[in-house]
Specification:
61% helix, elongated, 12 strands, four-stranded antiparallel β-sheet
């Protein structure tokens, strides 16, 4: 874990080394000041030598100034190193998530990943800064002050050994009790963030069903659970301060009592006792700082484990050693494919699929909920890998392609359409970064998106809010289709991506595809028979297996499932926006 975290220090190694170096120099300057104070008292004040007072006083001022300079530089470099370390950690986490396949992402909640990149990284930043300064300053001050104390009086220094034992036992007790609690705390953070994210993203549904009070109560429960765990952890950590104060004042009382006896006996000078008190405070302050480090480390261990869990996650999908970079055509073949989302250990989603699709062919895919339609098309762009068999595109197993090269030629408009904040042109150019405005306009025309874009005052420069909240579902779908078309793919997959557009527009889109991109293989998942009935062939899935794969006409004659879907939609008068003739039959058929 430590190696994984320290690998993110990178270009901030110099700052990470300079911070403890200047901290050490700061401590050295501070250590000599009590020693000079003793000399001023013994050789200057008590001896009545004012010249010695001036000389030692000037030296003390110089050392105090150097200590100030070294402390300032140490603070600057530690801040630079810790902030840079946190920045690199966030970059590494974000970059790692980008390499994840869907199966990797399924292991972590969105809220959990957000917590890791924010709260957990902030904890690591604070801990790293504290380690660079206090973890160097405190032990160094402790050891050096102890040495100076033993140099002044071996007998009185025994007081510190007792203090160290008491404090050490207390810290071990506190850490063993609090680390498991903090691990639970950060899991509760995930639940809290998940509650907020879900509520904000679905706020329209919440208000439509008047569920504000319910959501508020659910959030309060999550917040209360976090509160209780924090109270439990902080209650134990709170013992640190009174124990520390007990040790500090107990040591001062012991030194005062025994020191007075040694002065009376002539075994110790007043100056030495004064400097001894300074060193004692240095020792005790070091112990207090060490206890603070233990508290911070206790909190950070849980965060470090959660961060390393993501950084060490192995992407389920990787490129082969010698990947193919070119997809020859749009042929798609499923050779006895079986698939489950947990790779052999979970429920089988697709069973022994043996399908062969020619390049340029238009394939419709229908089936009930959970029949495996989306799982089928996810395998074509290798969003998941098969358990058995193989999926081939252009005659080559998808596992032999470079992932980026494959996905550039297999454009997918997913069931859940996502737009990003930016202009319409910005969103369209996700399909092709260097696309001209004319190319964007042509893609929008093919997707029938130009119909509503031209009505916007700013046209293609219209700003899209985060998630596309300022456009309708149908408009969002058409923009996503246009974005996919800009890739000029060999295979175009529409995963129920015209469900929010009316039947007439759906027909226009299909007609444009047939006319403008005849060489592109088109796989259309749809709930409406009207969206796929003109396809070259229609695949009917049932519980992950092929129930039928033929033309619309032949399926109506031979496939019971397809017949039921067709009859359910036509007997009710067709699609809601499809014209119906006077005799009640679908007027478009």
């Amino acid at each position: 874990m430590l190696k994984t975290l320290l690998s993110q220090v990178k270009e901030y190694k110099t700052a990470s080394l300079l911070a403890p170096l200047f901290t050490a120099l700061e401590v050295v300057m501070e250590l000599f000041i009590p020693f000079i104070t003793a000399a001023i008292i013994d050789q200057g004040i008590e001896a009545g030598d004012l010249g010695q007072v001036y000389r030692y006083g000037a030296l003390m001022i110089v050392m105090a100034f150097l200590s100030l300079c070294f402390g300032t530089l140490a603070g600057r470099f530690s801040a630079k190193a810790s902030a840079g370390f946190a920045c690199n950690l966030r970059d590494a986490l974000y970059a790692k998530v980008q390499t994840f396949s869907f199966s990797n992402i399924d292991k972590y909640s969105t809220a959990g990943l957000v917590t890791r990149m924010t709260t957990d990284v902030t904890n690591m930043q604070n801990a790293y800064q504290m380690i660079l300064r206090i973890a160097v300053r405190a032990p160094l001050m402790l050891v050096c002050s102890m040495c100076m104390c033993f140099f002044i009086s071996v007998q009185l220094s025994a007081v510190f050994l007792v203090a160290l034992v008491v404090l050490g036992v207390s810290l071990i007790f506190i850490m063993t009790r609090t680390i498991p609690v903090f691990q639970k705390v950060f899991r509760k953070y995930d639940d809290l963030n998940a509650s907020v994210q879900e509520n904000v993203s679905a706020i329209r549904v919440v208000k439509a069903f008047v569920r504000e009070a319910y959501e508020d109560e659910k959030f309060k429960k999550a917040a209360d659970g976090l509160y209780r765990l924090f109270v439990k952890a902080e209650s134990t950590l709170a013992l640190n301060s009174p124990i520390m104060m007990l040790v500090v004042y107990g040591s001062i009382l012991a030194l005062s009592w025994f020191g007075a006896h040694y002065i009376v006996a002539g075994e110790l000078t007043t100056g030495n006792l004064t400097s001894l008190f300074s060193y004692v405070m240095g020792v005790l302050m070091s112990l207090m700082m060490l206890s603070m480090i233990f508290v911070m480390v206790t909190m950070s261990i849980a965060s470090a484990e959660r961060i390393c869990e993501v950084l060490k996650e192995t992407p389920a999908l990787t490129d082969p050693e010698r990947p193919l970079m070119t997809v020859s055509d749009g042929r798609v073949d499923f050779d006895h494919v079986s698939f489950s989302y947990q790779h052999g250990s979970g429920e089988v989603v697709l069973r022994d699929l043996d399908l062969h699709i020619a390049s340029g062919e238009t394939i419709g895919v229908v089936g009930g909920t959970g029949s495996g339609k989306s799982s089928l098309v996810n395998l074509i762009s290798r969003l998941y890998d098969v358990d058995q068999g193989s999926v081939r595109v252009g005659g080559v197993d998808v596992r032999d392609y470079d992932l980026e090269a494959l996905r550039n030629q297999v454009a997918v408009v997913l069931q859940k359409n996502v737009l990003f904040s930016g202009t319409i042109l910005d969103n369209l150019r996700w399909g092709k970064e260097d696309a001209t405005e004319e190319e964007c306009r042509e893609a929008a025309r093919l997707a029938c998106a130009d119909e509503f874009i031209d009505r916007f005052p700013d046209g293609y420069n219209t700003w899209i809010e985060q998630g596309g909240s300022n456009v309708s579902g149908g408009q969002k779908q058409r923009l996503c289709i246009a974005r996919a078309l800009l890739k000029s793919p060999k295979v175009l997959i529409l995963d129920d991506s015209t469900s929010a557009v009316d039947t007439a527009t759906d027909a226009k889109i299909r007609e444009a595809f047939a006319r403008q991109i005849p060489g592109t293989t088109k796989i259309i998942i749809a709930q409406r028979v009207s969206s796929v009935q003109n396809a070259d062939r229609i695949l009917v899935l049932d519980n992950g297996a092929v129930s039928g794969f033929d033309t619309h006409e032949n399926l109506l004659k031979t496939n019971r499932i397809y017949q039921e879907i067709y009859e359910a939609q036509t007997q009710g008068g067709g699609d809601f926006d499809h014209p119906v003739s006077d005799d009640g039959k679908d007027g478009a058929r």
